[in-house]
Amino acid sequence: MELYDVTIIGGGPAGMYAAFYSGMRDMKTKLIEAREELGGRLLIYPEKMIWDVGGFAPVRCDRLIGQLAEQAKVFEPTLVFGQQIKGLTRREDGTYLLTAETGETHWTRTIILALGRGILKLEKLEIEGAERYESANLHYTVQELEPFRGKRVLLSGGGNSAVDWANELEAIAASVTVVHRRDRFGGHENNVARMKSSSVQVRTPYAVTRLHSGDGQSIESVTISHIESGEAERIEVDAVIVNHGLKSDFSGIAEWGLEMDDWNVYTGGKLETNMPGIYAAGDFASFPSKVNLIAGAFTDAALAVNSAKLYLEPEAHYMAYVSSHNERFAEKNRALGVVEDEGPQAQ
């Protein structure tokens, strides 16, 4: 069994960038992802447009995943798929032995937890018999926009995903109705304002209380009820999208002894956890100055890698040299046909 300098658990944006940046730091790196592909939470909405990543304005989720995955592989880290890490043992020499639910083991000197929200399970609509429509027109994710063109769409939810999809669908659907049980939406302020100023019909505080079908196979109309008065209204629909959030499963990692709540592990400013040699990045990390954006996940990843490097080599530089001055890129630039500027010549 090989010993790695750092093992990254999680293949979302934070994990992928950590794999790249640890290569810049000349660390022997392994990345373990529970799914069979990289992307993390972004895989839930591949056609969603992302506007807030530096250098991309805007970019589709699937393209962003592809770019991040390509970057993650630059320094050829070991990639392991289909393994959900559960067990942790610290050996006498201070190294860690990780155990997957499948029984495989991994040996590492440091760990970066880029778990996002863990193994995510979608919150289902709590209406008896709702599952019968999941193969027809009840949706919990949106993989493609085109099937909703010209349709009467009802969206239930009030977080970022519900707001974002309402804005995306407004341009192509016949109508979009958003039903939320609270008056206040949890999405980014600008996106909420955009939704409310468009043709999207916003109904608050309401909840979906009944699904109606003529043939027993697809939903033809929905009853929504006012949360306070109970007043009911029936709306004809062609499709229902439910964005009620996600349940999180961190497997056995929650039993390691980390200081954490139901969703996050608490870290210091250098992304260190309360356990030596274990760091966190991305959505899983919680600290006072946290920026909950994909762009913030990249900074988290770099800080976590730098901390892991200094844990292993206290005399190392506190960060990687930037790519324009990093020797690790010299050969790669030559392969790309890039002629490097050697500065002004002596006269």
From TrEMBL:
It is an enzyme of class 1 (oxidoreductase). It catalyses: 2 reduced [2Fe-2S]-[ferredoxin] + NADP(+) + H(+) = 2 oxidized [2Fe-2S]-[ferredoxin] + NADPH. FAD binds at residues 33, 45, 85, 120, 283, 324. Its EC number is 1.18.1.2. It comes from Paenibacillus dendritiformis C454. This is Ferredoxin--NADP reductase. Belongs to the ferredoxin--NADP reductase type 2 family. Residues 4-293 form the FAD/NAD(P)-binding domain. Homodimer. Binds 1 FAD per subunit. It comes from the Bacteria. InterPro entries: FAD/NAD-bd_sf (IPR036188), FAD/NAD-binding_dom (IPR023753), Fd--NADP_Rdtase_type_2 (IPR022890), Ferredoxin-NADP_redctase_2 (IPR050097). GO terms for molecular function: ferredoxin-NADP+ reductase activity; flavin adenine dinucleotide binding; NADP binding.
